[in-house]
Amino acid sequence: MPKKVFCGTVTKAKCDKTVKVSVLQVYKDELYKKVIKKYKKYTAHDENNSCKEGDKVLIQEHKPISTTKKWVIVNSSH
How many domains does the chain have? Predict the structure, then answer.
């Protein structure tokens, strides 16, 4: 089974080796045909502390690192 990969924006980078990434999902409601934006925040592991707030990053599923961290930063474009 392939690992999930999401693209998002770093919203919080204050903790050591941990960042909060906000991922946008856009979908259309089947009944009302309205476009809906849904944001979800993921806690991701940043090994090198290289990410800053506002950076675009790719996160990938990983085995649990801590209670809430189950994602790892794969690629960050500054």
Answer: 1
Full residue range of the structural domain in which residue 33 is found: 5-77
pLDDT band at 38 (very low <50, low <70, confident <90, very high): very high
Burial readout 23-52 (b: 16 or more C-beta within 10 A, e: otherwise) = beeeeeeeeeeeeeeeeeebbbbbeeeebe
Reported confidence tier of residue 27, pLDDT bands at 50, 70, 90: very high
DSSP string, 17-36: TEEEEEEEEEEE-TTT--EE
CATH number of residue 67's parent domain: 2.40.50.140
Cα–Cα distance for residue pair 74/55, rounded to 1 Å: 13
